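Reopening this ticket.

The earlier resolution said the output was attached, but the attachment link was broken on my side. Pasting everything inline this time so it's all in one place.
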Amino acid sequence: MTIIRPPHRRRRSCAAVALALAVTVLAACSGTGNNDFGEHDDHGTGVPSGASIETLPPLPAPWTDLDRDNPEAVAMAAVNALFDWRPAAGDTGPETARDRARPLLTPRAADSYRPYPIPRPLWESWMNTGADITTSSEVSSEQHPTDTGVTWQRKIATRIYMPEAGDLTATTLITVTKQPVWTVTDVTTLSS
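Inline output:
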């Protein structure tokens, strides 16, 4: 049996579907309103619309003299900061170093970064004994994506000298983007 709806009901159904589609299209096309520096599409220019060097706050110590026009210098400063572990000074884990490194990272890169995994008992032992953790890092000579005027990507190897655990090596994949100065936009550390 076929049900035939009166014309006014079909028009209402069509109007409801059209309204739902219009709302969906409008929602998909509208932005989030997030104008955080470096966290939106720059349409390939490397500089978000309306941004200028004057809009950037100066970096705090120890990076006040960092050459932000040099992507490798920015990448190395960020990796060194991420592995600047200070259990003897009260760091409660590698996350504390990540928090100190935030000025060199976009908010998205800082929030998504997962520090090198150190077992909690080992870290607490370092805190109790006042352990001194030292590191050395170098940019890998391996093949990497082609540099552009606005992106620089590399693999950086960090040797971690740790009491009671021996030496470890961590590999960090890092992307630095010019917006308008070089800033870390993606960073991932892999344990070896």
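Reporter confirms the inline version is readable. The first helix runs from residue 7 to 29. The chain has five helices and four strands.
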